[in-house]
Design goal:
The complex is a heterodimer of chains A (448) and B (173).
Chain A (H helix, E strand, L loop, with lengths): L17 H6 L4 H9 L2 H11 L11 H6 L10 E6 L8 H8 L1 H15 L3 E6 L4 H16 L15 E6 L9 H8 L23 E5 H13 L1 H6 L1 E2 L2 E2 L1 E8 L5 E6 L4 H6 L13 E5 L8 E2 H5 L11 H4 L3 H4 L7 E6 L4 H15 L5 H18 L5 H14 L7 H25 L21
Parallel strand pairs in A: 1-2, 1-4, 2-3, 7-11
Antiparallel strand pairs in A: 5-6, 7-8, 9-10, 9-11
Helix pairs in contact in A: 2-6, 2-9, 3-6, 5-6, 6-9, 15-16, 15-18, 16-17, 16-18, 17-18
Chain B lengths: L10 H11 L11 H11 L6 H11 L3 H8 L13 E6 L2 H5 L2 H12 L12 E6 L11 E3 L2 E3 L4 H20 L1
Helix pairs in contact in B: 1-2, 2-3, 3-4
Classes of the chains: A alpha/beta (448), B alpha+beta (173).
């Protein structure tokens, strides 16, 4: 059993209430940070921990904090990104739904480190039921004196509010999130200036993912060095992985960074193997945006060693043979899953979610969706496959925000690794599916 | 003819609006727009008419166009009327691997409507939506603020029947 830092108390009685949370050692990091540490010392511990942003980009959290403009004379803001919308990702939801005080505790300590007087949790609108859980927990925190004026007599004051979105994947991009919090359409801003200089209402702002902020709690409790002892290389600590798809035990798992992908898929402690005794065909290891990998590339790196659940190992080989840890949205496909159909599904998603600001993304995502739809439904031509490749290449890197890349990568990876499936769809338009949209037996995956 | 509704928040909703507005600096009232539109949608029949949006604009001291552009951007705001019960089925990748498409066609057949349509009695509207963050508990749909997960045809029957009875009871009272 790996160590658990975030979900350790998940199944304890009343852990969602202030009382239950305190009984399990809750709010110790607030006592410690506000009474015994300076804000810079808190930041220093986070730097030492090696914590990297858990929302998907994996940027060092302590480093991000150090970019915050502390001399502008304007108020500074910490925004928690709880807009969890990356297909395959549902870890932040579990954390907020079951242990809301962990996020609140992390917000208090992080806001203290950054010198914020007011902070916001931006939560996706579909999670309205979780917003209500968080608001109840926040009210409990005010009542106990962990929020509000002069917290625990430390002289530090903080107000914390929850702000709902209204159904827009793009608002998980930090500048779109800020626009949305300002009451506008979620159109990402051109950077620079970065939010750390000019963010919410033009003030210095830090945006961090739910899981990153929650991780600050064990980092302050036990020290950054202790946190950094878990994991391998620059992938320190634990990571929440949302496992879904054709597996026996879908759900959210907290893993120590560095376990092997094979163990994660087949061990009964985690995914419990592929459903219905089928073979593993492919996997999207970090949310729908990251490249899909066929089984042989997924389980082993190019040097033949097992691939591990770390930022570095999952991206080993670049996009030619690797992928990304991303948000930890781990989607598993069995041998019957249709890669073309899945790629079309994701392309539809990105078309729907494109904000429409940049032409390559606005036009390209819809174009890819239509071409993929044609291939999937038996109206494809061989040259459509190259056309898709061409479109995705012209989206990638040519947009204001990373949604363009996120839309391009799944299409590129599917063609790179599963071109034969696209060709099969074109060659045998009537033979591809049975009524359940699964592959017919003669078109099974390549055996490892 | 639909019933003409006076566009004005109930005292409870008004209280909630003031609470939300207090979360932002005094000169940044516009920030309350998204949460206030959620309240408006709940108050006025599950959708945002032009009158409703104008009302929200007056309330927050912003131009109506600032409300329209937001209401048309975010997928949770309905700018057309919907049935009393709005079924939103997740249709993204992981849900599809676990039978979301079958659930959609089952509901279509059961209610005799297509995706995007409303039943004649104005009870149900069926919509497909993108990833709701329930990938591990697929297939699923959202109705109101509730996630219904691990759906089967039997479960769908039960959920929809129960909700319909609740609505009918509420109307009769």
């Amino acid at each position: 059993m790996g160590r658990k830092l975030l979900l350790e108390h998940l199944n304890k009685a009343n852990i969602n209430t202030m009382e239950g949370y305190l009984q399990n050692g809750g709010y110790r990091s607030v006592e410690k940070a506000l009474k015994k540490m300076t804000p810079d010392e808190v930041t220093e511990e986070v730097k030492k921990s090696g914590l990297r942003g858990r929302g998907g980009a994996g940027f060092a959290t302590g480093m991000k904090w150090s970019f915050l403009d502390r001399n502008s004379g304007k108020p500074r803001y910490l925004l928690c990104n709880a807009d969890e919308s990356e297909p395959g990702t549902f870890k932040d939801r579990l954390l907020m739904e079951k242990i809301p005080h962990l996020l609140i505790e992390g917000m208090i300590v992080s806001s203290y480190a950054l010198g914020c007087r007011t902070s916001y949790i931006y939560i996706r609108g579909e999670y309205m039921f979780i917003l209500r859980i968080l608001e109840k927990a926040i009210a409990e925190a005010y009542a106990k004196g962990y929020l509000g004026e002069n917290i625990l007599g430390s002289g530090y004051s903080l107000d914390l509010h929850v702000h709902p979105g209204a159904g827009a994947y793009i608002c998980g991009e930090e500048t779109a999130l800020i626009e949305s919090l300002e009451g506008k359409r979620g159109n990402p801003r051109i950077k620079p200036p970065f939010p750390a200089i000019a963010g919410l209402w033009g003030c210095p702002t830090i945006v961090n993912n739910v899981e990153s902020i929650a991780a600050v709690v064990p980092i302050i409790n036990d020290g950054g060095d202790e946190y950094a002892k878990i994991g391998i290389g620059k992938s320190t600590g634990t990571k929440l992985i949302s496992a879904s798809g054709n597996i026996n035990k879908p759900g959210v798992y907290e893993i120590e960074m560095g376990i092997s992908v094979e163990e994660f898929i087949y061990s009964d402690e985690y995914c419990g193997g592929i459903k219905n005794n089928l073979e593993l065909k492919a996997c999207v290891p970090g949310g729908s945006s990251v490249p899909i990998l066929p089984n042989h590339l997924l389980l082993k790196m190019s040097d033949g060693n097992p691939r591990l659940m770390t930022y570095e190992s999952l991206s080993e080989g670049g996009f030619a043979t690797g992928s990304m840890l991303g948000s930890g949205g781990f989607i598993v496909y069995d041998e019957k899953a249709c890669i073309v159909r899945n790629t079309w599904n994701f392309a539809r998603f990105y078309h729907h979610e494109s904000c429409g600001q940049c032409s390559p993304c606005r036009e390209g995502t819809g174009w890819m969706e239509r071409v993929l739809h044609n291939i999937e439904y038996g109206h494809g031509k061989m040259e459509d496959i190259d056309l898709l490749w061409d479109i995705q290449r012209k989206i990638e890197g040519n947009t204001i925000c990373p949604l363009g890349d996120a839309a391009a990568w799944p299409v590129a990876a599917a063609i790179r690794h599963f071109r034969h499936e696209f060709e099969y769809h074109v060659k045998y338009p009537n033979r591809v599916f049975d009524e359940d949209h699964v592959y017919q037996p003669e078109m099974k995956m390549q055996k490892v | 003819m639909t019933e003409v509704q006076k566009i004005e928040f109930s005292p409870e909703a008004m209280l909630e609006v003031s609470r939300i507005v207090s979360h932002y600096p005094q000169d940044k009232m516009k920030s309350a727009l998204l949460p206030v539109l959620h309240i408006a949608q709940n108050e006025f029949g599950g959708w945002l008419s032009a009158e409703t949006m104008d009302y929200v604009a007056r309330l927050l001291h912003i131009h109506p166009i600032e409300v329209y552009e937001v209401a048309t951007f975010y997928s949770m705001y309905n700018t057309k009327p919907v049935g009393k019960i709005l079924i939103e089925v997740c249709q993204t990748g992981p849900c599809c691997l676990n039978g979301a498409e079958k659930i959609v066609s089952y509901i279509e057949k059961k209610l005799n409507i297509k995706v995007g349509e409303t039943t004649k009695d104005n009870m149900f509207t069926l919509k497909t939506v993108e990833c709701l963050g329930a990938c591990g508990y697929a297939p699923m749909f959202q109705i109101g603020e509730t996630f219904y997960e691990h759906l089967t045809e039997e479960k769908v029957d039960m959920i929809l029947e129960n909700l319909k009875q609740e609505k009918l009871k509420a109307i009769n009272n």
